[in-house]
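Milestone M4 deliverable, item 7.
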Amino acid sequence: MAAARSLKQGGHEVVVFEKSRGVGGRIATRRQDGFVWDTGATSFAPRGRTLESVMLSELDTSDLVTLDKAIYIHNGLRPMASDHRPAGLRYTYRSGNTKLPKLLAAETDVRLSTHIDELERAGDGFRIGGEGFDALILTAPIPQSSLLLWGIGESRPTANAKYRACISVNVGYHVELPPTKYHALLDPEQRHPLNWLSLESVKSPDRAPAGGSALGAQLGPAFSLEQYDTPDAELVDIVGSFLAQLYGPAFREPVSSSVKRWKYAQPVGYASFEEVNPEGSRLILASDALLGGRVEEAYEVGLRAANLLLAR
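Output delivered:
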């Protein structure tokens, strides 16, 4: 959406094809039974990058929440304060983090639930589903974008781009969490299956019914890979056992739950944006594996992609 917004501001007509029912990729929000969970990126810490000024100065801020509680670490489910204090503020959106891509996509021609299986060259441009375009930006994870490139006999030097998987287990309860000084727990050593726990109803209002709690657990890379095909009910049971150890037996069995599997959750190896996108190309790769997996880094990649086309 960063690229689309920048190109529109530059006076170009833009069409966004999105295979899902909503824009945002891993900025995803799930609503169920009165609970609201961010199942991918649970908060934003732009750290002074371009995205921060866009969020604060150019987009509607009425739904924006500044997180005032810390991120604690856990060692075997024993929470403790971290000595590390990251610079900058951290944000979320009250109604769900998909608010950000929706704001960025305002007045853009977005085609939802549209799966692109192949590209077609048409002179100096391209065709998608019979519709002609002067240039294309591919924003899917590198393995998926590479398949589209191979379909038109093209490849780019992306061998270093690799990803890890993540299973997100989201649970809701009709009981409030005990008071905490943190809104999230992190296992920095990635030794425990519970790599990240977001206390959704602590980080933002309106994430659970009155008197309830919403939590989002993201399981570590090794555990996620090993358990990727494990049935949802078993994964919810595993997470329930962790939460019971943390917060008591009332959190053993949730009243609402959902599971989201992210095959390409985070890049762990990177390709060079400049090497992947030769000067003058009308077909640009703008994957997160070209700069970084954080939201603010993905935004920067989109701006770089747009700038390549605007400079033509």
